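Could you help me review a protein record that somebody else here produced? What it holds is a sequence and that sequence's fold in token form. I have pasted the whole thing underneath without changing anything:
=====
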Amino acid sequence: MYDSGDSKASIAQSFIWYFDTTVTVLSTISRIERITVMAAEQLHFVILGAGINGLSCAVRLSHEYPRSTVHIISEHFSPNTTSDVAAGLWGPYCLKGTSEYECRSWAQETHNYFLQLWQDGYADKCGICLVPVIELFHRDTSSPWWRNIVFGFQEMYLSSDDFDLAHQTNYRNSKSVAFMYTTFTCEPSKIMKCYIDTLSNRNVKFYQKRLQSINCLEMLNIQANAIIVNCLGLNSQHVFNDLELFPVRGQVQKVKSSSVFHSFANESCYIIPNTDTVVLGGTKQKIDSLRIDPNDRYYIRANCFAIQPRLKNAAIVMDCVGLRPARSSGVRLEIEIISFDNGQNHAVIHNYGHGGAGISLAWGCAGTVTRLVQQYIGETSITRLKL
């Protein structure tokens, strides 16, 4: 038999221990929460690059951390970015080296985002359209990994007559594989204008400056605890010494036409309708020239006219060239701590190397950037707590 007095004392001591432990735990949780909230309130972001990836990051970070300061530094702003050249057809490509798992995650999130904008009535403002697509290839080609993301994907083996390609003689009497599906076009110039308007309303600051090296960053007097988000694309070659980057040149022509309602692509060319123009393309050349090449212009028009003869009479709006930021090991999306000569350490989140899939992955990649920020804040908060 236990002594009742001892039992009561033991219970009391247990209660006191439990109470003290609970208070300690709650106090610790409260301190972590306070430090995390303080960190979130005092966040400063410096975003390098104002293409579709840089602006997507700015929109998501300024939404997630409304009390933060966001500064965007870029040599060019829309309509003079690489993103502005793109037709904006959703479809990841030129991504050699990037894991399918990561691509699928970013691509799905971006496609879902376009669908949400389209359903919520922002299609016209953001330049978003649902477009039926036909892609035709000479040889047997494996269906793309993103076939379950787009709508109504079908794969068919057929002859050229099935697509009325009599004028394109190199397709006659040859077996071809066709991929047919419906997806979105999201015109970068239009959605980037929406982003800039949104960011301006959130008091985000824009600075036009060319960064030529990491030393240029040190001379900008960046806030000591600022998180840098690197969306410089090809310029990461120089600023962050990434020798894996290389340009894939794309030349296109934009024309006026009201008779094209689906997108067509083969191994020689593509035709992509936008809301105000039709984009004729294109080239995939590993050179860094931004000059309009008359030979490329001729073959782009000849190949596209062979598919859509009515485009011969379409008024030309402009010829454009852009350099896709391809990277031998794929997209770089990771956090790095860099040390400046002035003794400051900064977290840098790299987000570049998207090849020809900038618009197709941008929103999903910006989501990963936001999660990396959350992770970094959490780790920093715990470190401060231990101190």
User: Anything to note?
Assistant: The two ends are 49 Å apart (CA to CA). The CA atoms of residues 107 and 156 lie 24 Å apart. Residues 25-38, 165-171, 383-387 have pLDDT under 50 and may be disordered. The first strand starts at residue 44 and ends at 48.
